Structures are given as C-alpha cells and as structure tokens.
Amino acid sequence: MNLYKKTASELAEMIKNKEITSEEVTRNFLDRIKSVEDKVGAFSNIFEEKALEQARKIDEENNEEGRKKYENTGLFGVPVALKDNIVSKGDLTTAASQILKNYVGVYDATVVKKLKEAGAVLVGKANMDEFAMGSSNENSSIKSASNPWDLERVPGGSSGGSAAAVAAGEVPVALGTDTGGSIRQPASLTGTVGIKPTYGRVSRYGLMAFGSSLDQIGALAKSSEDLARIMQIISGYDENDPTTADVEVPDYVSLLEKDIKGLKIGLPKEYFSDELDKSIKEVVDKTVETLKKLGAEVKEVSLPYTKYAISTYYIISSAEAASNLSRYDGVRYGVRKSDENIEEMYVKSRTEGFGDEVKRRIMIGNYVLSSGFYDAYYKKASQVRRLIRDDFLRVLSEVDLILTPVSPTTAFKKGEKVTDPVQMYLGDIFTVSINMAGLPAISVPAGFVNGLPVGIQLIGNYFREDLLFNVANRFEKERGEIKYPEL
Ligand code: GLN
C-alpha cells in the first residue's frame, strides 16, 4: 500500500483504529525515503532503526488503556522529521554546519519531548541552510536539497529540507524554524502549508539559536488540519524557556470548520507593488475571490514601514546571530581545530567550521554592535522594529487577518542567487516583518505558475493561530486537493 499521499491526520486515525500499524506506516515512509531521497536530498540524517523501534513500542501500547499514557494522540504513531537545528538526545544535530558535524544531542528539546509524549515517530533530521541562514538550502554544508516540483530548483530555506521532505511524501509532517520566513517561504515554494507561530507560543528550549528575539519553531505539512494537530502538541508554556507565554492553547482542531462569514481581511497596499510578479499577483487575487465567496470582507490597508523591513531585519538578526554563535569556539561543542594555543584554536575552529554566509552574518552583526556604530545601526533598527510592530497592531485593530504574498517569485534555479547575497535577502520582503512584530502567520498553497507552487500568507493577531488554521482549512476545502509532484 502506498501511504505517502495520506495526511498525518488520516494516518493517526488509521493507526488508532488499527487499520494499520505504526510500524507499517513508518516502513512505508522509510521506503519512500529510500526511493526518492537521492533526488530530493531532504535529510541530513535518518534514524531508521530507532524510528522502527519507536513505532513498535507505539503499536504495543495501541489500545485504550495504553494510549492513556499519551498526552495527546493527534499524531499517534505518525512519522515526523525534525529540522537539524532542533536537539534530540543521542542523535546527531548539526545545524548543517561543519562546526557541529559530530555534535550529538545530550537532551531532548521541549518540542521533541512533547512529540515523544504524544507517540509521534521521529524519523530523522531535515537538511537546512547552515544555522538557518538562507532562503534556498544552498548554504547547507552537507548538500543542498532540491525542489520536488523541479529538481533543478531550490526548495527554499532555511527549512528547505523539511519542506522538500513533506512535498515529496517522505514524511507527512515536519518541524521547521522561522526567524525571517524560513518556514513560510519554503512552504510556498514547495506547495506545502507552513506555520510560524506567535513568538512565545512554542518553546525554543533545545533549538540552536540564530536570532533569539525572532526565532520560532513551527511546522510544515500537507493540510492545515495536520498543522493544527502538531501545533496542539508542541505549543504552550515551558519553564525551560522564559520567553514562552503562559497563554492557554485552544483546541485548534475543533475550531477548523468554523464559519468565516463576516471575517475582515486587510490587503496591505505596500505588498502589492510593481515588483511583485504579475502571475503571483493573479494567484493572490484568486485567493481573495475564494475567501470573499466564503463570506470574508476585504479592504485595503497600509503598512508604511514595510520598506524598512529588510534592512532592519538583517541588522537585528545578524547582531543576535553574532552573539549567539560566539559559543562555537572549539571549546565546548563540535569540531576543534589546533591545540597550539587558545587564540589559534578559536580562529582555526571558526575559520574552518563556519561557511561563508555564516561568517558574513557574524561580521555584519559585530559591525552593527560595535561601539562606534551601535547607535546608528542596532539602536536605530530596534526603534524601527517598534514602528513596524505598531503598524501591524494598528491594522489588526481594524481587520481580523492580513493577506499577502509569501515570496515575490516562485522557486528559483539552483545557483541563480547564491553568489549575490543581497538579491537573496530581498526575497524575504514579505516575511521578515512578521517576525519582527512577533505575530503568527501561515503560508497556504494557493495555485501554480508555470508548474511551480505559489503560497499566500495569512497574518493574524497574537495567539490567533486558531483563526489561521480555521481560514486556511476553509480555503483548502474550496481550493481542492493539490496534486503530487512526479518523482
Ligand atoms: N532568509 C532569512 C535569512 O536568511 C530567514 C531565515 C530564517 O527564517 N531562518 O535570514
């Protein structure tokens, strides 16, 4: 039986109803991985034996009494991939960096612990741009994943491995992380649905930090119901991460079908400028029509500070990255080069361990934090960040959701932008402000342009992930099934 086209929700129910075992499901996906992974390159590490062992344990406990041990059975027995910057005990966790190429996790990240407590089966680590810096997966020091819709194209990034794995049917659902768009952009480019939750919704304990005030763990899947299920499991307050919020997690799944009549949606005029590809604009327009048919009311809104979003984001995220990455010095983690003297050890470990893009961010970060430039760059950027946030809050007091494109283009060819970092950064225009404001946003597949998927972005108010899933789900039902890439 070919299970790879099934959603995580369908699989979990089939397993609980004993129509199939978790072991069979897990084997089926491992076989799918074997048959397509050479082309797709979505994984940095696969835990075949461990996954099967976990699946067998689930099967043993798959009865009413046994399942009581599990907190939430929304993904019971279902295979899940973790992005390679999320630590899990006893598994290699490399952030796709040479400096961590031999790093084995010594504890479980909170999200991993929660997934295990829910009976999900962890099958491997997904490839990514090194330390989550990038938009194409080409900054991975391991290999660069390919877009299952066109293997010569990028799957997006930095959670490109997670997105490619889901799009290719290698796993039904995967965790990703999003600092400036790294879940939403690859979701858009691969025809998957991806959520970046509210800052503080999901614990970052056990996530290798990039920009600590921006990073959030979220997920990618084939349906918003699958996302609702995984978010139900991983969300919530965690005493190990003081930035998590003690705000109740609603029952996302039960709210999926709610009527959206009268829902107010804002279209920010700054997101529909002439630079936006015409064919992408058409997909967005069509989506708006569908939502209107479902009863939504649409109006134009304005987010004037959007024009400063990219420069502000690259100052703040690089400053935080420079501080966060100072811990990789050859002393405690990963690869150590040279024992001559301590200075040489730092320099050699970091020179050989980090790739070009990571070094570029560290240099930008240290520059904007340096005493002569701090006020002009970092302090200024922090002030502009506040204005960007205020823009969103003003608009979200008038409308329930904001709808925008996710990426200004469809998946681009490998090699097309990698030598021009600024070009690559400019592609983040529609996603980075949301991280700076800390708001939740979802990317939902809405159409195709020249055979390549295009997603649209819905942005909600703080902790309104429920509304994002609800609207995305109603939209998906109208849109119909997305076909599968031929591999
Ligand atoms: N493309 C953005 C960057 O390179 C976003 C990365 C992310 O969200 N992790 O910084």
Report on the structure:
- The protein is 38% helix and 13% strand.
- By secondary structure, the chain is α/β, with parallel strands linked by helices.
- The protein has a domain at 3-261 and 403-479: Amidase signature (AS) domain (Amidase signature (AS) enzymes).
- The chain has an eleven-stranded mixed beta sheet, sandwiched between helices.
- Strand 2, helix 5 (110-117) and strand 3 (121-126) form a beta-alpha-beta unit.
- The longest helix is centred in the last third of the chain and has 21 residues, at 375-395.
- The radius of gyration is 21 Å and the shape is globular.
- The mean pLDDT is 96.
- It binds glutamine (GLN).
- The site of glutamine (GLN) has 13 residues, from loops.
- Keywords: ATP-binding, Hydrolase, Ligase, Nucleotide-binding, Protein biosynthesis.
